[in-house]
Amino acid sequence: MGSRKLEKISADEKLRNLLRQHGRGLLGLLVLLLVVHDIFGTHGFLAMRRTADEIQKVKTDLDQLNKQNADLAQQVKDLKTDPATIIAMGRAMGLAKPGEVIIKIPDSQITPATSAKR
């Protein structure tokens, strides 16, 4: 029983000696690992920066889509209420009023001077 106690004491002393000799190095290594994890880890600095960039891109896309939505809503309103808009859209689609004749000239026959006048 006495020899076991001596062996246990010597094991405790070995641990103390080990910590005395390598404690600062182990602590430094632990701190280094924590810093590396905070920078490169799953929720580290770089991941948070990447996420912030993605959030900014989504906000920009959302603003652009909201602007397009407002423009389309205005077009719908104009098409429901403004006869000039309805006529312009019909003419763009190649429609004509009764009694009108539409003459289409192929692009290959249009000269640069003629196209500038249009």
List the helices and strands and how they pair.
Layout: H1 2-40, H2 45-81, H3 83-92, H4 112-117
In short:
The chain is mostly helical and 118 residues long.
Give a structural overview.
The protein is an all-alpha fold and 118 residues long. It has two domains: 1-40; 52-94. Helix content is 78%, strand content 0%. The protein contains four helices and no strands. It has helices at 2-40, 45-81, 83-92, 112-117. It is rod-shaped and about 115 Å long. The termini are far apart. The mean pLDDT is 86.
- Sheet with most strands: none
Question: What is the mean pLDDT?
Answer: 86
Strand content: under 5%
Q: Roughly what percent helix?
A: over 70%
Structural class of the helices, strands and pairings? mainly alpha
Q: Stretches where pLDDT falls below 50 for ≥5 residues?
A: none
Beta strand count: 0
Radius of gyration: 39 Å
* Overall structural domain count: 2
Notable features of this structure?
118 residues, mainly alpha, 2 domains, 4 helices
